[in-house]
């Protein structure tokens, strides 16, 4: 049992280190999109004492990505751990991860990119103990933009994964 917990901890540490190594320091397009994730997770992060749905409602449910990337941002990990804690404590609960992309690129490419982004979020959840049977992946590609427009700020808000219970 201890070896399995150590293995999970090691896998999580490697995932976080990988995400940190892949992140960029360019914040030109993070604007309000990056800030939204950071401010929404404050109430629920790792100090979450319960595992009820009301605790989960305080966590971010939209996770943003850099252009043409599918690496989970380090600032998203804390909120994802909170969601994982809830899902582990409630094995009958299920989550749908909806991957999205901005309008740049072909429809086929954006569908694949949305799927890679959803899989990246799923990987963080499973490393934190969530059963893969509790997770459903859907990619909408560019088909369901959060914000209409052809600017960097619009595109930044459309590059996302939405977590829905």
Descriptive overview:
- With 165 residues, the protein is α+β, with helices and mostly antiparallel strands.
- Strand 2, helix 5 (107-127) and strand 3 form a beta-alpha-beta unit.
- Strands 1-4-2-3 form a 4-stranded mixed beta sheet.
- It contains 6 helices and 4 strands, in the order αααβαβαβαβ.
- The chain has one domain (2-23, 30-164): 60s Ribosomal Protein L30, Chain: A, CATH 3.30.1330.60.
- Mean pLDDT is 80; it is low at 16-49.
- It has helices at residues 2-22, 31-40, 53-56, 77-89, 107-127, 152-158, and strands at 62-64, 95-100, 135-141, 160-164.
What can be said about this structure in brief?
With 165 residues, the chain is α+β, with helices and mostly antiparallel strands.
Report low-confidence residues grouped into runs of 5 or more.
16-49
Main beta-sheet strand count, sense and barrel state: 4 strands, mixed
Report the CATH superfamily: OmpA-like domain
CATH architecture: 2-Layer Sandwich
Tell me the domain tally. 1
% residues in beta strands: 5-15%
Fold topology:
Elements: H1 2-22, H2 31-40, H3 53-56, E1 62-64, H4 77-89, E2 95-100, H5 107-127, E3 135-141, H6 152-158, E4 160-164
Helix pairs in contact: 4-5
Task: Describe the structure using short key phrases.
165 residues, alpha+beta, 60s Ribosomal Protein L30, Chain: A, 4-stranded mixed β-sheet, 4 strands, 46% helix
């Amino acid at each position: 049992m201890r070896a399995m917990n150590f293995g999970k901890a090691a896998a999580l540490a490697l995932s976080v280190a990988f995400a940190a190594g892949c992140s960029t320091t360019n914040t030109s397009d993070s604007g309000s999109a990056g800030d939204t994730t950071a401010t929404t997770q404050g109430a629920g992060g790792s100090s979450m004492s319960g595992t009820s749905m009301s605790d989960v409602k305080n966590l971010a449910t939209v996770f943003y990505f850099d252009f043409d990337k599918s690496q989970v941002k380090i600032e998203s990990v804390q909120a994802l751990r909170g969601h994982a804690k809830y899902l582990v404590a409630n094995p009958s609960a299920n989550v749908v991860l909806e991957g999205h992309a901005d309008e740049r690129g072909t429809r086929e490419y954006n569908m694949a990119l949305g799927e890679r982004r959803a899989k990246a979020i799923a990987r963080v959840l499973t490393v934190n103990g969530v059963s893969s049977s509790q997770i459903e992946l859907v990619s909408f590609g560019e088909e369901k933009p959060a914000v209409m427009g052809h600017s960097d700020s619009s595109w930044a808000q459309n590059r996302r994964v939405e977590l829905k219970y």
